[in-house]
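Predict structure. Chain length: 200.
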Amino acid sequence: MRALAAALVLAAAAAPAHAADLRPWSGDATPPALVLKDVDGREHRLADYRGKVVLVNFWATWCEPCREEMPAMQRLQQRLDGKPFVVLAVDFGEGDARVKGFLKELPLAFTFLLDRDGSAARAWRVRVLPVSFLIDADQRIRYSAVGDAAWDSPGVERLVRGLLPRVALRRAGHNIGIARSGEPPEPEAQGAHSWIDALF
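Prediction complete.
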């Protein structure tokens, strides 16, 4: 845990100042299990969010790029209000008191989970903060970002909207069906997944 925390501190300090790009994910599309409690002690399971697009963001209060990108995440969530989209912000190695203190300074309306022992970060092979994963309604990893991203940019919003499940009206019998979303990920050219693997 201490070794991983030290590595994340160094990586965060060395991270570039420009915003990261969301890259199509080319690894195993099945996300690792994620079962964590929020700052109020309620348990959340990633599997319970099937049917929604989920942004899983690994961060820490001491990580400046993490803090800087969160208002943009909030704006994205506000623009998608009423849509099946959620943000799960996974705090690395800190307690509820520290995260609650951060939220008093910067009120944010998405769900904050506590990875107290770093087990979730290890399972998701996180080696730098922030790292984010976009998961579609069928619980497949579709995109990732290493570093802070411009979550409220038109391009990112368009990408997220493309992953949202769509209700389709069938002409035959006018039955309502669910069309799972999104176009298939574009081929990744030396993108974030290779970069992440290089850090392990």
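Summary: Residues 3-7, 9-18, 168-179, 183-200 have pLDDT under 50 and may be disordered.
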